[in-house]
Amino acid sequence: MSYGIPRERHPISELRVDGDFENGRIEVVSVDREQKVITTRVPDDDHTQNPQMRFWQMRLTGVVPGEEITIRHTPSVEMHYVFSYDGEHWQRFAEPGIENVTHAFEETTVYIAPNIPYPYSRSLRLAESLTENPFVTVSDLALSEEGRAVKLFRVTDDAVEENEKRVLWIQGRQHAFESPSSFPPEGLLRWMSSGDAEAVEFRKWVVAYVVPIMDVDHVFHGMSGKDMPHDFNRSWEADPCPWNAIAAVKNRLQSLKQQGASFLGFVDSHDPYFVQEPQWYVAGSSESWQQFDRCFVDAVRRAGGKNRHGMDLEQPILSVPPADTQRGRDFAWSLFQEVSDFLALTLESPHHKDSDGVFMTEEGYLQWGEALGRAFLNYLISCN
Ligand SMILES: [Zn+2]
Q1: How much distance in Å is there from the Cα of 192 to the middle of ligand 1?
Q2: What is the pLDDT of residues 89-136, one digit of tens each?
């Protein structure tokens, strides 16, 4: 019924913006359908106020392919934001920043985010895809505060006795906004459970434990997960521990120690927006740093990879006995410091360009995980 009121004319599908999907979250300020201008901002319901540490993801529907759309999003930082037509395959905007970007998209639906998203459901699909793999054991490390499973992958060749092996722990995404930090753990897991000749060797010598996403709840909601007020990576000393996933990692590391496990490495994968170059932090003493500098850096170089992140050491690297164990790497180092070649590391992957200025891609981040595995193999062979 129209009651005589003229119906507004709408195109068949009109331009819309939303964040109502997994890992999505956006505040829509306005959508000017005449001028094709979308104005959005990061919702305020996030504890993190630093614009460089805020995650969000939006979906545009009703886009006319080939027609220019302007996106005005705040806050914007100097990095190359990403877009996708299916939420799976991502490309970067050519220009940095997103406060005023005009782009002619090629499909009717477009996803936009600060960096390549790695949603919670990806960790579940990863678990499903590896259940039949004879070298991988999938379990739930913990249930999150909201009841989501934190997936833990153990990968090794069980034909070799466990007590003859070294242990490597790699985890990502203590900070939910650092979406690419989940890819290196997945890349290491995929490589180590594959038929690659070096992977076959590596899993005879090493038991690896892989956690792609620590803070599953904030990742699920598309939130930043920093300063909440209990930052995941400042909560390792707190008693009681405010986060189930961290309490579970601490328990697992402590029980592995009691079982006599010989730890080779602990890698905490991060990917903040405030450093562009790759950056390593080495926990422990100056001996730890020397071990890293003398052997591991070269082992990383020889491991290769498409994106050369992690190869150039651009930033000062911390290496003093930690004053506390609030951070994961410092907790791990304090637990296993008597093992002379043990390395407790934080890797800050570059967020949009590698050391050569090449755009970071999903494949590049995954390959970096593989390179990390090969690096630890080189390290085992060359430095012992
Ligand atoms: Zn971080």
Answers
A1: 25
A2: 999 999 999 999 999 999 999 999 999 999 999 999 999 999 999 999
Domain boundary among 72, 93, 113: 113
Distance 178 CA to ligand 1 centre (A): 6
List pLDDT tens digits, range 315-330.
Answer: 556 667 888 999 999 9
Number of domains in the chain: 2
Q: Write down the pLDDT at residue 2.
A: 43
Q: Is residue 3 part of a domain?
A: no
User: Are 312 and 249 in the same domain?
Assistant: yes
3-class secondary structure, 372: helix
Same domain assignment for residues 285 and 376:
yes
Residues sharing a CB contact under 8 Å with residue 225, sequence separation 6 or more, in sequence order:
48, 55, 175, 176, 177, 215, 218, 219, 232
Residue 55 within any structural domain of the chain:
yes
225 C-alpha to ligand 1 centroid (Å):
10
Rounded to the nearest 10 degrees, what angle do helices 362-382 and 197-205 cross at? 60
Q: 339 and 252 share a domain? A: yes
The Cα 26–Cα 179 span in angstroms is 16
Distance 52 CA to ligand 1 centre (A): 11
Centroid of ligand 1 to alpha carbon of 270 (angstroms): 5
pTM over 0.90: yes
Q: Tell whether the model's pLDDT for residue 8 goes beyond 60.
A: no
Tell whether 5 is covered by a domain: no
Mean pLDDT of 59-66: 97
Domain span holding position 135: 120-382
